[in-house]
Amino acid sequence: MKTDVLDYSLDGKSYLGYAAIPEADTFPAVIIAHTWVGRDAFVDRKAEQLAELGYLGFALDMYGDGVLGSSVEENSAMMQPLMDDRTELAARVTAAYRRVVAIDGVDPSKIAIFGYCLGGLVALDLARTGVDLCGSASLHGFLIGSEQLNQEPINAKILALHGMRDPMVGDDQLQSFYREMSDKNVDWQMHLYGDAMHAFTNPDADNPSFGTQYSSTADRRSWALLVDFLQEVFT
Fold first, then answer.
1. Pick from 10, 71, 159, 215: most CB atoms within 10 A?
2. Measured between alpha carbons, how far apart are the two ends of the chain, in Å?
3. Is 157:233 a contact under the CB 8 Å cutoff?
4. CATH of domain 2-233
5. Backbone angles phi, psi at 110, to 5 degrees
6. For the segment 95-112, what is each residue's pLDDT rounded down to a tens digit?
7. For the whole prediction, is pTM greater than 0.90?
């Protein structure tokens, strides 16, 4: 595969995405949305894993200039403005989507997205914009809908992977997500991991009092489901 850091812009601000490009003439593309930390080695490696499967993997940058947080306070300060302004969040992920469409070899009819934590919401919100998207998956992500995007149809198939012990995504979010998906007649599915907390895919997550803990079992199962989901939506 070939890897490269690709610059793209929105409203005069620069964003740095990481692309892992398979050795093929044409290929589907999968966008990966990062956690509240920013575009780090974890999502870059996911892009490479996708390239090994024959997809273009593109780890987007939601914060700009590849900025990474180094503490809970910094992460929260970067994430919260996007949580509060979902129109801005949607604009940033749409800019990444447009950059991916422009990459040589990408089949524009075969694009999907998935994300972790904040990135799960980012992935769902790209689908909520109504763009031409095959699939959108959230892994231990925030599920709450957006009034700003509520009128748009969801054309993508949706997959949500959720830990039942996740204190950051309560029953109110689950119930509103069920209603939204059903009201919009979306082809959607949710898989629940009974003993998993938030951040169950992150090997460095080990703070149960904060609600974050790695689960090797949920990590393995969720990746297998995600790979199967991508195969389905691109068929």
1. 159
2. 23
3. yes
4. 3.40.50.1820
5. -130, 75
6. 999 999 999 999 999 999
7. yes
